[in-house]
Design brief:
It comes from Alkalimonas mucilaginosa. By secondary structure, this protein is α+β, with helices and mostly antiparallel strands. It is globular, with a radius of gyration of 23 Å. The protein starts with a helix and ends with a helix.
Amino acid sequence: MKSGSQALLGMGLLLLMSACEPIQSLTEAEQVERTIRQEVRRDLRGLNALTDAADATVFDGFAWRRGERLQIRQRQEGELVLLEQAEAPEIIATAVAQNIPSFSVVRYQQGWLVVFTTYVSPQCQVVYAYAYRGALPDTPQCSNDIFGEQANGQCQSPINEQWQVFKEWFFAESLLEEGNPACVQSAIRFAESNG
C-alpha cells in the first residue's frame, strides 16, 4: 500500500512538473532595463528635480556621493573635463532634499543622462545603460536583434513621456585580444555582416 501511494504521488508530481512551463530567468540586459524603469518610476519627482537643477547651471556633468565632494564637469573640445574650482551647491541641496544619496548625471543632446550601470552583452559589447530625460528622435528603439546587428550603437526604450532607457554599446576589443571565444565569434559575425 505504501509503495502504491508513493507511486501515485510520484506520478502526480511528474504530471504537475510536466504541465508547468520552465521558468525563464531574466537576462542581465533585461534585469538592468527593469531596474532603470523601476527606479525612474519610484523616484520620478526626485530625478526631475535633480535634472531641473542641473539644467539651470552652465555645467555638463555632476557626480556626487553623500559625504564626498561634488565633482563638476564641463565639456571642452568634445571632452568632459573635471573642474577643480567650480561650485554648484544647488545640486547637492536638491539631492539632499529629494533623499538621493548619490548620482551621476551628464548633459547629452537636449536632455540629461542619469548613469546607472555598465555590463557586457553576450555579443561581447560593453553596454552603458542610462535613464535619459528628454527626446532622442534619431535613436532607434531597443530590441534583442539590434545588439546582434551592430558591433557599436545606441538604442532607447520609452519609460514615460519624459524618460527613456538609453543604451550605448561598443565592441569589447580588449576581450577579443584576450582570446575570449564569444568575442572571437562575434567579431567574425560582425565582420561578415559589414563586409
